[in-house]
Design a protein that fits this description.
This protein is mostly helical. The chain has two domains: about 20-445, Proton glutamate symport protein, CATH 1.10.3860.10; about 450-495, no CATH class. About 70% of the residues lie in helices and about 5% in strands. Strands 1-2 form a two-stranded antiparallel sheet. It is globular. It is a multi-pass membrane protein. Keywords: Membrane, Symport, Transmembrane, Transmembrane helix, Transport.
């Protein structure tokens, strides 16, 4: 091997070191989990599992702690730095993409469940898993809670809690109709991420509309966003070790791995096949048809985010890694990534939507029920709403699954029929969720490139007026544009502070 070849290999290794280490963490975690399972005859206690998972839990807690400041600061900074017409176009293109891909995922899930029939000719007890506590919920209440959480009465409380309707059966008589049960309301300990996103979008729009009047607020938000991204870049280097212990502990914790190829095998293969087909065939085709871009390159550049999503099983926790991959590796303009990716991590859940639709029909087949066309439409609509309501946290889709079951008249307790394999399916659908966000961001960046270039020139003109310099603007590749834009914004901020003097 020549010296030039060695240098190229070393350069490639350095640029992809974190991705390689994260993938190694996934492999080592899986191998260690299997070895530890086979090292004893009896099951591992929950205390032992917690000890093994401790390092992974710390990593997950740090990532989740970054979610709120990351989403709020990046959204406000991105929207505030854009002209309203530009952010409006990005929102329209992104919204159309989200509707198309979510609808495609749900239709694919329904078609697979109806044609393969994974639950046909099986006894419902075959798929039963461990007993779990299921919250009674109605479709209407869940949809209304989703809207209520978009507009929280207390934004400080929204950082740690979200609103939830509780339905309890009356104690004095037996009433089978859940819509006649007693209603109450409570705040549960879970970040109201959709409310925070709505507030951040509104704040960013206000800054953008005020322009010069809000320049100091905009500068503060930009600087805060840079600080959070710097901290995030440090935390991301913990991914390999964190993912290793998370996967190892999960493999030890599962009671019976044989269930994947046994009683729930056909259901598992059906859902997994649909998720992978959607994420790595349909979505790449949409990308190629829409902007004629090679999807293989995007998948390669998202390698670290894919490994992190599989390890953490949380699209929100993976958000910092997704942003880094799309900006540093794929070269997408920071104004696009920090506008769309936080929104996508909140409402664009293709993998979850497909899973909800397939699982609901599978459970109805286990029950021996034949769904009418109207009920299938109800599954599609509620699966869409449920995927939006899924909070981007591990196994959130299992919670919102109750809403889909209610739409076709199945009891909430039927969720226990699929919980045995949900832990693994959740990791694959999280991967597809974050890949869907990445494909959408690339498409929006392509269609908004002219407007982004125009606003970038306007920002440079502002810099020229403040600094008296002449800056030539030439066409650059997207990565250079993003880097140049950030550098120029930083220089402009220095001018505002009086750090730079006119030449």
């Amino acid at each position: 091997m020549t010296r030039t070849s060695r240098l190229k290999c070393l350069s490639c290794l350095r640029s992809n070191l974190l991705t390689i280490l994260t993938l190694i963490g996934v492999v080592l975690g899986s191998a260690l989990g299997i070895i530890l399972r086979s090292s004893r005859d009896g099951p591992w206690t929950q205390r032992e599992v917690n000890y093994i998972q401790f390092v992974g839990d710390l990593f997950l807690r740090i990532l989740k702690g970054l979610v709120l400041p990351l989403i709020v600061s990046t959204l406000i900074a991105a929207i505030g730095s854009l002209d309203l017409s530009v952010s409006g176009k990005m929102a329209r293109v992104g919204g159309i993409y989200y509707v198309i891909t979510t609808t495609t995922a749900i239709v694919l899930g329904i078609v697979l469940a109806v044609t393969v029939k994974p639950g046909a000719n099986r006894n419902e007890k075959e798929g039963s898993g461990p007993e779990i506590s299921v919250r009674n919920v109605t479709t209407v209440d869940t949809l209304l809670d989703l809207v209520r959480n978009m507009f929280p009465p207390n934004y400080v409380q929204a950082c740690t809690q979200q609103y939830q309707t509780v339905v309890t059966p009356p104690s004095d008589y037996d009433e089978p109709d859940i819509y006649k049960w007693k209603m109450s309301y409570e705040f549960v300990d879970s970040m109201n991420i959709i409310g925070c996103v709505v507030a951040a979008v509104a704040f960013g729009i206000a800054i953008s509309s005020l322009k010069e009047q809000a320049i100091h607020v905009q500068k503060f938000i930009n600087d805060f966003s840079v600080i959070i991204m710097k901290i995030t870049s440090w935390v991301i280097w913990l991914s390999p070790i964190g993912v290793l212990f998370l996967i190892c502990a999960k493999l030890i914790e599962i009671d019976d791995l044989a269930v994947l190829v046994g009683k729930l095998g056909l259901y598992f293969v059906t859902v997994l096949g649909g998720i992978l087909f959607h994420g790595f065939v349909i979505l790449p085709l949409i990308l190629f048809v829409a902007i004629r871009q090679n999807p293989i390159r995007l998948i390669k550049n998202m390698g670290q985010a894919i490994a992190t999503a599989f390890g953490t099983s949380s699209s929100s926790a993976t958000l910092p890694v997704t942003i880094r991959c799309m900006e540093e590796f794929h070269g997408i303009d920071t104004r696009v990534t920090r506008f769309l990716l936080p929104i996508g991590a909140t409402i664009n859940m293709d993998g979850t939507a497909l899973y909800e639709a397939t699982a609901a029909i599978f459970i109805s087949q286990l029950r021996g029920l034949t769904l009418s066309f109207g009920q299938i439409i109800a599954v599609a609509i509620t699966a869409t709403a449920a995927s939006i309501g899924a909070a981007g946290i591990p196994q959130a889709g299992l919670v919102t699954m109750v809403m889909v079951l209610d739409a076709i008249g199945l009891p909430a307790e039927d969720v226990s029929l699929i919980i045995a394999v949900d832990w693994l399916l959740d990791r694959f659908r999280t991967v597809v969720n974050i890949m869907g966000d990445a494909y959408g961001t690339a498409i929006v960046a392509h269609y908004a490139r002219d407007e982004l270039a125009r606003t970038r020139k306007e920002s440079l003109n502002e810099f020229q007026k403040a600094n008296g310099d002449v800056i030539s603007i030439e066409d650059e590749d997207p990565r250079a544009q993003a880097e140049t834009y950030d550098n120029e914004r930083n220089d402009f901020s220095k001018v505002e502070n009086g750090d730079l003097k006119k030449s």
